[in-house]
Amino acid sequence: MISVDQWSSGSQIYFLTHLHANHTVGLSPRWNKGPIYCSRITTRLFHPKFPGFDLSLLRVIEIGRWYSLLLVSPSTGMETKVQVMAIDANHCPGAFMYLFRGEFGIMLYTGDFRWEVSSEIAQMGKTMLLNALKNDKIDTLSFSGSRCSTGDVLFLLNFLIHNFTVLESSMPVIFKVGGLEV
Ligand SMILES: [Zn+2]
Predict the structure, then answer these.
(1) Checking DSSP bridges between strand 105-109 and strand 67-72, what pairing results, if any?
(2) What distance in angstroms lies between residue 79's CA and the mean position of ligand 1's atoms?
(3) Which tens digit of pLDDT belongs to each residue from 127-177?
């Protein structure tokens, strides 16, 4: 239904965290599988990286607000609403984390990120995540982790544990290099 940094399958919509090469394997100037959501900064970097890319396929998503998308549920074949919020990953200009709500629960896909304790952007990201979740908890946490230090990962996990008690034994925490499909 949704792919993040994953370009090989037949998803309905696609999300790009940032344009580093290990997140765009399978993406090319001939891309025609569907719209790609990403930051405004990332859209500006598309042309230099993929000359000739059909820029009308790009959808700008702004940080810190919920977007609602109507998709077709792969399990029921009925229309289903998916909400998404972008959060600053503090990794490179325009890099996002994505927080999703949908029939699959609440999922945070970090992509590459840098959330040191001293980082002002990380503090803003934390506040944004707290406000977005309110009393809800994350059902699935997915790290792409290709450029994250152990310290970044531990910092995020600690933050989530202290604020949301998300790490119940049932919560899958996915450590993977590459993209996400749900
Ligand atoms: Zn990266």
Answers:
(1) unpaired
(2) 33
(3) 888 889 887 877 777 766 555 556 666 666 666 655 544 443 344 444 444
Q: Among 116, 125, 118, 139, which residue's Cα sits nearest to residue 96? A: 125
Give 8-21 pLDDT, tens digit per residue: 878 999 999 999 88
CA of 148 to the centre of ligand 1 (A): 9
CATH 3.40.190.170 fits 2-181, yes or no: no
**pTM as predicted:** 0.83
Evaluate the CA torsion angle 129, 132, 137, 143 in order and state its sign: negative
| Residue ranges covered by each domain of the chain | 2-181
User: Rounded to the nearest whole angstrom, what is the distance from the C-alpha of residue 91 to the centroid of ligand 1?
Assistant: 7
